[in-house]
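Please check this today:
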Amino acid sequence: MPATEPVKVMKDIQPLCFEHHAEMRREQLASHREKVVYSCQEPECHIHYCGSDGYFFNPAGEDLIDQYGIPRLRCAQDGSPLYLLEVQPENHSFRLWRCPNCNMSRVSGMVH
């Protein structure tokens, strides 16, 4: 099988907002018409996730980039932007990140 076959982004992912740790909802944004985008549902939150672009702010939230910073973790296997899959309230430093394509996981900086 040729290595040039395109990688398909999984459609059943459930990213969390990196700020609120709330489940994001799948939506259609005018700026990303051809892509699957997930949006935080917390009031006044402008954070979104797209499997090909990673986390981003919609235009109304662009001024928040310096305040929050955006996680830019990438998959070691295919370079895709990771999404936040799980946090543990009892362990504030725990973060489980997942690749939307190959399911590679990274926990608080460790690869699994």
